[in-house]
Amino acid sequence: MRGKKGILCLMLAILLGVSGCSNLMLFEAQSTRDVELPEISGEDYVAPWGDSQADYLERAGIYYINEDAQQLARSEISYLLTPSEDQMVTVLNRLLGETPDDVAAVAPEGTRLLGVEAAGSVVTVNLSLEARGADSDQRILWLYAAIANTLTEMSNITGVNILINGRQEAVLSLPMGVMAQSDGDLTALWAQQQADAQRAQLSETSSTSRTALLYFPAMEGAWFVAEPRDLTFVDGNYATALLAALSQPAREVSARPVLNAVNELLSTPSVVLTEEGFRFLQLDFSEQIHALMDEAGVSAYEFVGMLALTMTSFVPAIDGVQVSVEGSLLREVSDGETVHSFADGVFLRSHFADEIGSVVKLYFRAEEGGLIAVERVVSPLVARSPRLLLIQLMQDQNGYASAFPAGCNGDDILGVRIADGVAHVNWSANFYRLCQNLDYAAERDLVYAIVNTLTELTNVRGVQFSFEGRLADTLANSIYLKTVLLRNPGLVQDE
């Protein structure tokens, strides 16, 4: 939507084109500039020309159900991951498709992985319809627990939200929301779920606490950002509670100003069942909602997008959202540039899923010296690409100063290769020349802005620099470069 798919395809084509070259003529002109490059010192080092990643061996813990169905059983596996494979997808496919002899399968036969969305520290997993074939709610809960424990063992993942065919599937009529890692005691998990369900049935004013995933329009760029929020739900009115949470400022992510939409609801949200068997959540707002959107700088497209993503992530068994203003169904919404049409006024999760941004951490120079870590929302493609992350670093961002000297651009990156946990970055002669007058602090900050940013990638632990294919003792005068550099957290200042 909004042209993003075309932009991402173009960026991917550029990256693939670069990676297919073994000796890039694009950078030949920079090699001939009048700059004294490091001398060839005889080291047996092959610098990258173009971008590539080596296959690498990974280990992961996968959780199955033990034979007596009382406890999750952890099994450690080793697997070779290729550059085209996603670690979470690979591990989940193993969990769903292969079961060791001494444990029980976690999912009904034929259950497939439809997709994985990573939003900050929370992952949303979408399973195929076959997962609903579990013989009891208890088995669905165990499936959820096995997936949550498996993924939260991975770096930087703290919670897992699970959908079945794009819908939140309730367990004993209660949504699960974002699940954290548990101790694997299946009996205790089931007993807690039963207690929550019984309490909800016995009292109309009972409350249930869950962690919901809220989606907001990002402060910068045309992306949605997700934030987990601990909420208490009363009377099973999930939609109103979620809308109230969306009407509060985001706490962990950089999002647009608050849009206090909950006060403009004209009626209690309800779910309608169509003749075709689809279930849609209906939300009706007053005319004042348009003024609130204008005041917050949120387009109608962003408003319905945040509702569709948030509601389908938590409200059980809904396929999408219908939004009305004074009873008039919205079928066309604008993002400020383009008017988007939606058949029957139905907003599905799939309409906006490609616009969920990834939060990356970039390192810029702090005013008092050293570095400052800045979170930015970018496309998933940028978040996975060392080259594109480095290009982001070269530009000042929202008042944060780049550590790169003026005159650097993406053409100065001759190649990046990730192998055995090391990002090998080959820089141009122009980059080397521009850095020769840096003082100690500027040189240090530049080197470790690069190192700290690249080592945020899960498969990078260190960085090796080269220049036109040659190793150098230093970039300017001070930081020794003929070694793999590890991240330097001591340089990072608090905001």
From TrEMBL:
Annotated Pfam families: Germane
Domain named GerMN: residues: 88-173, 239-334, 386-476
The protein's name: GerMN domain-containing protein
Organism for this UniProt entry: Candidatus Alectryocaccomicrobium excrementavium
Lineage start: Bacteria, Bacillati, Bacillota, Clostridia, Candidatus Alectryocaccomicrobium
